[in-house]
Structures are given as C-alpha cells and as structure tokens.
Request: fold
Amino acid sequence: MWDATNNGNRRPYGAYGGMTIFEAASRRIGPEGPQRVLGYQPSDAEWRFPNIGEDTAKGPKGVRGTYDKKGVQLPEHKSWFFYLQRICNHCTYPACLAACPRKAIYKRPEDGIVLIDQERCRGYRKCVEACPYKKSMFRTNTRTSEKCIGCYPRIEGKEALSNGTPWETRCMTACVGKIRMQGLVGVDQKTGDWANDPQNPIYFLVKKEKVALPLYPQFGTEPNGYYIPPRWVPRPYLHQMFGPGVDEAIERYAAPSRELLAVMQLFRAQQAIVARFEIKEGPKVFETKINGKPWALFNDTVIGYDGKGNELVRLTVEEGLQKRPAERANSI
Reply:
C-alpha cells in the first residue's frame, strides 16, 4: 500500500495508498450511525494483560513455540524481540479529539500537547475506542477518561528547580538507558509543516537525517513520537510499523554521519530541553569499514543550548576513561 517513489516535502517517506482511520470510518456504519474514527474497544483481557507476548522472542514464521536452531546474526535475526516504548503521541490530528462527542479533548496551540478536560468528560469512552495507540484509558472510580498530560508543567518551565527553563517529561528524564530525547519545534505558518531549523536536534533527527520515524503513520493521525528502528528485526515487520523509510533510516544509523554521531550524544544528557546544538570538530580516532564502505570516528564536541541560548551540556563523542585508584579497587 506504500509507494515509496511518490515522496516530497509533505510525504518524506512516500505516499500511502490505503485509507486512514478517519477515511475508513465512513464505510463502517453501526447501530449508532457513521463514526468519525474507525476504532475498537479493548476487551477486559487486553486491559488485564497488556504485555502478553511482548517478552517472548519471535521464532520461525508459521511455527509456534520454537526458535531458530542456527543462531542469529546481522543484518536480520531469525529469532528476535524488542521493547516498543509507547506513550501518547500527542498527534497532529488526534483521533481521540475527533471522536469525543463532548468536545472534552483539546490540543494546546503553544506546544501541541493533547489534554482531556475532566469536568467536561462524561466517560463515553469514544476516545478509548478511537485512539489507535490505545493511550486514552477509562478510570472506573471517576467514570472519566484519562491520558498522558505530556508533563506540561515541566514543558512550561514550572518545575521547582528549573528556573523557568523547559524540562523534559518524567518518562524521558527517568530513562536509565539514555535512549529518549524530547524537544519542541517551530511551525511554518504558511505551510503548517515544521519550520526549517537544522540545528534543532529533533528536527535534525526527523527531517534532515531521517533516522527517526513515526509509529504506524498509515493511521493518518500524524503522531509526534518518533523511533529509531532496530536493525536486527525483519524488514517486512518494520515496514508495517514505520513505513518505507525504514531501509534508509537503518542504513544511516548503522553507519552514522559525523554530525549524527555527535547529536546522538545529547540523548538524555540532562533534564532541560535542548533547543539548539553546535558541533566543534575534533581529531580522527578510529577507522574501519561498515557494509564495505570506509567509515571514520571523530572525537567531536557537541554543545547543547536551551531556547534562550544558554549552554546546557558539552560532550565529546569519545567517552573519557576514568581509572580507579588502587586504594579504591571497588565502589564499596
């Protein structure tokens, strides 16, 4: 259903030939009449066991309960699994907002965060049904729906220790693996697309290097959560999840450019949102071949700044080596 050759500024990965969840809703008319969004209500079993199967490796196609006996190797593993960290995508076209008959859901114009007005909500659960990512949830004791609020007080710089500087959300800050990054991008008032800002790390990853991709873009909600796809998963599976941009994203991530490698150091560097980055070139420290092509590692320095131009963090690509003194052989 994807035509990767039909691309452009508004469709960087290609054109989707199928119907979005908004278009498909007009063809499915139930007892309540036509719906605004095509969705479904999860069963009690789905809510009770949301992670069943997610910790189990995927074996050979068509064979259940077995694993590949020949081992695994890149570029694709025959037995594989990966964690898909999911939060509310605060979509550009939120399905939950479109489906709510009470107009209790709204999208903040200043930062795009999608919120539910608890006073207007009557618990019809249309948002639960409509959200394809199932990030609106019904609370039985209050009889209203709830969802991620995007930690908007932190985004507004109202965290007690932030001194007015916008901070990343709690889920970003708490990530011990340092695999998350959050940011704010400007919007071009003429086109409605992201304003050209290649020194913004989020813009750089999504629009320039195109290594970060939206989850299930074919739904048509234009999600604002982006993922760098894993290299070892079979490509058809990744194409289904992230669209036809997967191949280019993995190729660029496997052999990162000098600039990309520097920007990657900013992931979870500290709590404040990095609005702009600068790279100071350093010496070449390593050479090799990746996929038969020469590749070099440079110990560049990347500097992150907040929205006011204040320096937040300064890191080198090559991590420093700390040698523990002999009298302190361990940390106890």
